[in-house]
Write a structure and sequence with these properties.
mainly alpha, three-stranded antiparallel β-sheet, 5 helices, 3 strands
Length: 119
């Protein structure tokens, strides 16, 4: 196997998921928000799941952000996150629908108001 530019060895994605190809839940999308639960990380987890839990410690990330930081394919992180969600170690929230986002005009008026307060 050849190494990556960073010098780290290239590991096939199927090894990080233990050979599992499909997630146990279809609800995880690229912009689904993952949050780790507050409990301790259990011993005996596979390395990739352990790394994902450590990354979520004290915060939240989208599935695609987690994949980028772990340097794993999105599909592999979907499998890992689904397994951790099934175990109750991670909560997954669907992305905010576009229709529920505030209007750009409202955001501009709020920003203008904040700038006016600053001066």
């Amino acid at each position: 196997m050849t190494g990556r530019r960073s010098g780290r060895p290239l590991v096939p994605a199927y090894l990080s998921t233990g050979g599992v190809a499909l997630p146990t839940r279809d609800s995880l999308e690229r912009l689904s928000v993952l949050t780790g639960t507050d409990g301790p990380i259990p011993a005996g987890l596979p390395a990739a799941q352990h790394a994902l839990l450590e990354m979520l410690d004290g915060g939240s990330l989208t599935v695609v952000e987690t994949a980028a930081l772990l340097e794993l394919p999105f599909s592999a992180v979907r499998v890992l996150a689904a397994e951790l969600t099934d175990q109750g170690l991670v909560t997954a929230r669907p992305p905010v629908p576009v229709a529920d986002l505030p209007e750009p005009d409202l955001l501009k008026r709020v920003a203008d108001g904040l700038r006016a307060l600053k001066h």
